[in-house]
Design brief:
Blueprint: E1 14-21, E2 32-39, E3 42-50, H1 58-82, E4 90-94, H2 97-104, H3 121-127, E5 131-135, H4 152-161, H5 166-179, H6 194-199, E6 207-212, E7 217-224, E8 237-241, H7 260-266, E9 270-274, E10 284-285, H8 300-319, E11 323-328, H9 330-341, E12 349-355, H10 367-374, H11 377-383, E13 388-389, H12 394-404, H13 414-419, H14 427-436, E14 441-442, H15 443-455, H16 466-473, E15 492-497, H17 505-514, E16 523-528, H18 535-538, H19 542-555
Parallel strand pairs: 1-4, 4-5, 8-9, 8-11, 11-12, 12-15, 15-16
Antiparallel strand pairs: 1-2, 2-3, 6-7, 7-9, 7-10, 13-14
Helix pairs in contact: 1-2, 8-9, 10-15, 11-15
């Protein structure tokens, strides 16, 4: 592969393209800056390196990349003008509309004072008409080639944009793919972020944020601040929290008209997608890596005590408003635990809508899930040293196969065997779901859930022996989460399905009995007879059946 240049008699035009990959470094969580410059369409210089400071959002990362491109442009422009080769001024292109607004509009960056003041000279250069800054589509931004692994077709397109030799490129693909199969390969969800792959592709603005928990985990948080029209949110922030084996993608799997995150954004809400520790957006830590067993030393106790309060505090501080909360499955269990233990989230809460609520699991009808609990599957994996539970991993597949071979268990449709017979999900949505999910979790998290199934209680993690429990809790058995301790004045919406194999109707009735003293004007209960577990987040008619009543509920609070 080589550079190619054309002989030109006229003066040259200088164009630069800037891009950033948010939190690209797994070790430092630094973002990657990339820029490339062309004269009359021919590539003359380029750069790709980690940023010197950690960015707190995609906007900041893109802004810093644009600033570096401006510096280079001023130097190149000065050189070409001195040689009397330059025609006009340099043009810089970025695919981040939010960073462009930040560069051009002083009002827009009132909340961005944490960005070093030295970066703001970029706006002066624009106002002085030294360099122009314009928007370019992500698909036509060649700087993207230097921020991440790209699909082959996108990689070829970027090379064409940079006017590189095609014949030599073909040889490069063959050689590199042979030496390193991951060097040039289609991007997968683990190599891409939720914003670019799932939100911006639907025409929405999206920001990536990072949150650090008290116990050192670095969590990803996506924000959809406006609808597709660009109208700024005029309603309170909403935090959406996914269930087990999933992440923020849960809320954007369907079309914009059918996905809760997009529906809320179109209705004027400021939407935030939380991602619990261990998922692809939240694998950072201040001192550990996912390869360390201690990284996975947690269960949903820690999700309720650390992850959820960190999300609440960050969104509250960032917006200055109290929050509507929507949880699904494990996201509801986190909320029940946090509300009952006074983990400092209730004072930042407007209301909570809990879909497929999980608190009691003793009557769970899912044969597959119950068999895994009764066979102590989680404990077996933990004893084998598998602290990270990877659903698609080889070891997990073997154990699931063993369960499926037991009498009375039909695993021909694993999703149905696990969640129940979902009535209203398109096959295309399932395909998108399987591209991104299931996500890893801690094996200890599964052990904790299995304890709930076997014991019929909602209690903290049981270490299995008196000594360890005494050391952790000061008592021989773990403390219970008292659902009656949830403040009676918290507005709650509980929506559950008649066909749900995980959030069983009988178990939900036990929960409702515990909440019998809750203020009646603060508790709304909805039973959707034909819904199973995933219909609430993936059903094509959930926008009418669940989301419209949910927004009506929000409107009251």
């Amino acid at each position: 592969m080589g550079l190619r240049y054309k002989q030109m008699d006229q003066k040259v035009t200088l164009e630069g393209f800037a891009d950033a990959d948010y939190a690209a470094s797994k070790d430092t969580r630094s973002s990657t800056t990339s820029y490339v410059f062309t004269t009359n369409g021919d590539c003359i210089c380029w750069k790709s390196q980690l940023q010197s400071v950690v960015s707190l959002s995609t906007t900041e990362a893109e802004f810093m990349a644009t600033t570096e491109a401006f510096k280079e442009a001023i130097w190149l422009q000065g050189m070409l003008q001195e040689l009397k080769m330059m025609k006009g001024k340099a043009n810089i292109y970025s695919d981040s509309q939010s960073s462009i607004h930040l560069c051009k509009n002083s009002v827009y960056h009132e909340k961005s004072k944490h960005i070093d003041i030295r970066l703001f000279w970029i706006r002066e250069k624009i106002e002085e008409d030294v360099i122009s800054l314009d928007k370019i589509g992500t698909e036509d931004n060649p700087a993207d080639i230097r921020t991440k692994v790209l699909p082959v077709n996108k990689f070829k397109h970027c090379l064409n944009l940079l006017n590189l030799e095609i014949e030599a490129r073909t040889k490069l693909y063959t050689t590199v793919a042979h030496e390193n199969p991951t060097a040039i390969s289609p991007s997968s969800p683990s190599q891409d972020d939720i914003c670019k792959s799932m939100v911006e592709s639907q025409g929405y603005s999206c920001e990536q944020h990072q949150v650090i928990t008290e116990d050192g985990y670095i969590l990803g948080l996506q924000r959809i601040p406006v609808g597709r029209s660009g109208k700024k949110a005029d309603k309170p922030p909403v935090l959406l929290q996914h269930g087990i084996f999933s992440d923020g993608v849960t809320w954007v799997l369907n079309s914009p008209e059918e996905s809760l995150a997009f529906v809320l954004a179109e209705n004027g809400y400021d939407v935030w997608l939380g991602n619990t520790r261990g998922t692809v957006s939240s694998r950072g830590h201040q001192s550990l890596t996912p390869n360390d067993p201690d990284y996975w030393n947690w269960s949903w106790d820690q999700l309720a005590a650390y992850d959820l309060p960190a999300f609440f505090q960050y969104v509250h501080d960032h917006t200055g408003q109290n929050i509507h909360y929507v949880g699904h499955s494990l996201g509801t269990l986190m909320a029940f635990a946090a509300f009952s233990q006074d983990y400092k989230v209730s004072n930042m809460l407007r209301s909570a809508a809990l879909l497929s609520p999980i608190a009691y699991l003793n009557q769970i009808p899912s044969i597959l899930t119950k068999a895994a609990a009764d066979l102590f599957l989680g404990e077996q994996l933990y004893w084998l040293g598998l602290h990270e539970f990877i659903p698609k991993g080889q070891e997990i597949s073997k154990l699931v196969e063993n369960i499926c071979n037991k009498p009375g268990i039909n695993c021909s449709d694993l999703l149905t065997a696990f969640t129940g017979s979902n009535c209203c999900i398109n096959t295309s949505t399932i395909n998108v779901f399987l591209e991104h999910e299931p996500q890893p979790t801690a094996t200890r998290n599964l052990i904790h859930l299995a304890q709930m199934i076997r014991k019929g209680t909602i209690a903290m993690y049981d270490y299995g022996n008196v000594v360890e429990n005494m050391k952790k809790y000061g008592k021989p058995s773990p403390p219970s989460y008292n659902m009656s301790s949830i403040p009676n004045d918290i507005p709650l919406l509980l929506s559950y399905g008649g066909k749900d194999q995980l959030s069983d109707v009988n178990d939900v009735n036990v929960l409702l009995e515990k909440l019998k003293d809750h203020d009646q004007d603060k508790l709304v209960v909805q039973l959707v007879e034909d819904y199973a577990h995933l219909d609430f987040v993936m059903g094509v008619n959930a926008n009418k059946v669940v989301y419209d009543p949910l927004m009506d509920f929000f409107g009251l609070h």
